[in-house]
Amino acid sequence: MMQSIAITLALCATICAAAQTRNTPIEAIAYVSGPAQADGSQVKGNVTFTQNDCGQNVHVRVQLEGLKEGKHGFHVHEKGDLSNGCASTGAHYNPDKVDHGGPDHEVRHVGDLGNLEVNSSGVIDITYTDKVISLTGNRGIIGRAVVVHELEDDLGLGDHVDSKKTGNAGGRIGCGVIGVNGAPQQLQEATAPIRTPSARHVHHQPPLYYVPHEEPQDHVVYPLQRYPSYPYPYPYPHPFYLSDVDEWPCRDGGVGGLRSSLSILAVVVALFLSRSV
């Protein structure tokens, strides 16, 4: 009887440890810069993405300077490729192959993050939550690029020919690859700015980014430079490889996979106890 109890407790401890392991925040950051504009201004700053656990909403903090007053389209683009500056980041990240829309629209690209509304200072520091993007899984944005546009995104509601494709947001004035960052403190659902030290002044392990290739299971990973000059210096530094995307956090379906695993373990425990009685 004591042996049965001991084994049961060990299995329960394993389940709890698995749950605790998965409940780890994931943070990614993009160091954004762009070409000098005609008036001498230059977009610069960072965008931080935090996901408290697999399958949860993503908290986005945008800290940028050098923007003109007004609204600027803000998107995740499909490629983490800055070999030709922002021009080589491809189209909006749109794995569902649907029309462009606003961040709160039922139909939108995964990468449709709406507009950044900037005041006369040219500086923006906002925090909000997005329910569509993810840092893991099929809609994962790590390794792709954030892009800031010159004009306002019409959210797919305009009459321009590009409205349903790009929101007619104009040229690309700033961009950066989304790289893995150190694990942060958990964030609460909020729209108000979170008053923490600017990410650019916090020391983390060097972030990494990968460039998606034709085969999704084959990712080339390169060191990510903080505030590199524009355009970014290439050729790439010597890469190393991740041959299996499951090495990234929240593998095997994230929370859903974890719950399935726990359900299986629970059945095993129940069967064991029934045989022990």
From TrEMBL:
Keyword field: Antioxidant, Copper, Metal-binding, Oxidoreductase, Signal, Zinc
Origin superkingdom: Eukaryota
Gene Ontology cellular-component annotations: extracellular space
UniProt catalytic activity: 2 superoxide + 2 H(+) = H2O2 + O2
Signal peptide (from-to): 1-18
CDD domains linked: Cu-Zn_Superoxide_Dismutase (cd00305)
Biological process (GO), any one: UV protection
Domain Superoxide dismutase copper/zinc binding: 43-178
Cofactor: binding comment: Binds 1 copper ion per subunit. Binds 1 zinc ion per subunit.
Single Gene Ontology MF annotation: superoxide dismutase activity
Database matches in SUPFAM superfamilies: Cu,Zn superoxide dismutase-like (SSF49329)
EC number: 1.15.1.1
Cofactor(s) required, per the database record: Cu cation; Zn(2+)
Entry's family note: Belongs to the Cu-Zn superoxide dismutase family.
Annotated protein name in UniProt: Superoxide dismutase [Cu-Zn]
Source organism of this protein record: Drosophila persimilis
